[in-house]
Automatic annotation (TrEMBL):
Residue intervals of the Baseplate J-like C-terminal domain: 266-356
The protein's name in its UniProt record: Uncharacterized phage protein gp47/JayE
Ranges of residues in domain Baseplate J-like central: 182-258
Top-rank taxon, per record: Bacteria
Family label: Belongs to the Mu gp47/PBSX XkdT family.
Organism of origin: Acetanaerobacterium elongatum
One Pfam short name: Baseplate_J_C
Length: 360
């Protein structure tokens, strides 16, 4: 639309309305009078065109996309704070109890102790929102003065953090909402409610026809699409079940159980033929990176690791690769099928990648 009303087109249209008996050549009074007006009209046209693109979900951005989503009761997910396990010992190596609200730091991350798990073992919440809270492990330094402190160690992630939802993520969630129509305990309703719980990154819903009358089973993964911790599983379960008297989010009559996926290690072997003069030492890491990228990009609900796709990713790792052959996945030269059932739900995890060079 905008290209039909650019400056030159508008100016020519305006000049066409001036009688030919008048001087309207470039540099004339009429031309110099109409040209700035045509420029302003063209500028307004582009502004209107840009505004129109912000009014619809497929092209809107930032606050405008937020307003589109808000029309359907959806809001952009803000960055969350990670919950971590902190282990504290005194100078003799014995477990040490520290006051709640004690603060520790490592690099540019600070954490505050919120709950005692056991002697010398605590939950701590990152004070910085976003995936920075998932990154570090190792020794912590105290921010506050803690009597008797020997060492403090930042251990595993109990509930992973996530960054603020991007435009594409919010747009995708809006499309899912509109296309799936969540309502009254259907699968789309369970998916929407589960993904709305802090820390959950993916969910598969199994209903009565899969596991029995009145039963619903949720298989979840964390924000990194890794197996959920017991902490996160409990949070989801409590959200849906409540006290089992209808106080949870699950519809009355639904018995909800929650589990998590398990990792299936995927070992890969491959042979590659390179162009003459190409260095295998330089190409090998690129091939491994390509294989890792494919396995890591497999969606939570995808049930097959495709050998052909894996080969394609490896071939495209470098222009120096002429051929990829002898590819096996977990020892077999075929696709790998993942188990996706209510009580055995597998997601792939990259294992050993063995690449050798062939010349023939």
């Amino acid at each position: 639309m905008a290209e039909n009303y650019e400056f030159r087109y508008i100016l020519n249209e305006m000049l066409a309305g001036v009688p030919d008996t008048l001087d309207k050549r470039e540099g004339s009074i009429i031309y110099d009078t109409l040209a700035p007006v045509a420029y302003e009209v063209a500028k307004q046209n582009y502004l209107i065109s840009s505004l129109m693109s912000l009014l619809f979900p497929d092209t809107s951005q930032e606050i405008w996309l937020d307003r589109n989503a808000d029309n359907f009761g959806l809001a952009r997910r803000e960055a969350t704070c990670a919950t971590r396990r902190v282990l504290v010992q005194d100078s003799n190596g014995a477990p040490l109890d520290v006051p709640l609200s004690s603060r520790f730091r490592v690099e540019d991350l600070t954490l505050q102790v919120t709950e005692k798990i056991a002697a010398g073992e605590f939950k701590a919440v990152a004070e910085q929102a976003g995936t920075i809270g998932n990154r570090y492990t190792g020794e912590l330094l105290p921010v506050d003065n803690i009597v008797g402190l020997g060492t403090a160690m930042l251990a595993d992630v109990l509930i992973p953090a996530s960054d603020t939802e991007t435009d594409e993520e919010l747009r995708g969630r809006l499309y899912d909402y509109l296309r799936k129509t969540p309502f009254g305990g259907n699968i789309a309703d369970y998916e929407q409610k589960t993904l709305g719980i802090e820390g959950v990154g993916a969910v598969a819903v199994f209903t009565a026809q899969n596991i029995g009358a009145g039963l619903v089973r949720l298989i979840i993964a964390d924000e990194q699409i890794q197996p959920a911790t017991e902490e996160l599983i409990t949070r989801v379960k409590n959200t849906f079940v409540g006290d089992r008297n209808g106080t949870g989010m699950a519809p009355i009559g639904h018995l909800v159980t929650v589990g998590t996926a398990s990792l299936l290690t995927v070992d890969i072997t491959a042979q590659v033929k390179l162009k003459t003069g190409a260095s295998f030492a330089l190409i090998e890491p690129l091939i491994k990176q390509a294989a890792q990228g494919y396995i890591g990009g497999i969606g939570f609900k995808e049930g097959i690791v495709y050998r052909a796709k894996l080969i394609s990713h490896m071939l495209n790792a470098s222009d120096a690769i002429l051929d990829v052959r002898g590819v096996t996945i977990n020892g077999a030269a075929e696709n790998l099928t993942l188990t996706k059932t209510a009580y055995d739900y597998q997601i792939p995890s990259i294992g050993t990648i063995t690449v050798t060079e062939v010349t023939a």
